[in-house]
């Protein structure tokens, strides 16, 4: 099992990380993100691969209005999909919402009723 993924197509290389220090002749300590806190941060040199710079890896970040407590308001941009969740005794209507400053892979499923109340402008263009 590699990094929480089991199976034939589990990722072999998971990202580029800064090398903090060299330990001995064949091991390195890496700066891993908190999401990989369960992984030991010292790796043998055979498990590392040189990062090849790619101009498409440069991310363009939009300016975000940050409040004094370092929080910001999430604003939905568009509804990507609709789904009906059928339970034993009731039916739940869901919408997949694309949020500002997030990619399509980070879109979330929300209750249609709540989104319709808070953001009615998203539904005017789809009706």
UniProtKB/TrEMBL annotation:
Domain Tf2-1-like SH3-like, chain residue ranges per copy: 3-51
Name assigned to this protein: Chromo domain-containing protein
Biological source species: Cephalotus follicularis (Albany pitcher plant)
């Amino acid at each position: 099992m590699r990094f929480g993924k089991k199976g034939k197509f589990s990722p072999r290389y998971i990202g580029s990380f800064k090398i903090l220090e060299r330990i001995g002749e064949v091991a390195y300590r890496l700066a891993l993100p908190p999401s990989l806190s369960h992984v030991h941060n010292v790796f043998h040199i055979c498990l590392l691969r040189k990062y090849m710079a790619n101009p498409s890896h440069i991310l363009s970040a939009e300016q975000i209005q940050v409040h004094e407590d370092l929080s910001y308001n999430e604003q939905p941009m568009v509804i990507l999909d609709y789904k009906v969740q059928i339970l034993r005794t009731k039916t739940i209507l869901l919408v997949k919402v694309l949020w500002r400053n997030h990619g399509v892979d980070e879109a979330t499923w929300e209750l249609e009723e709540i989104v319709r109340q808070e953001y009615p402008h998203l539904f005017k263009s789809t009706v």
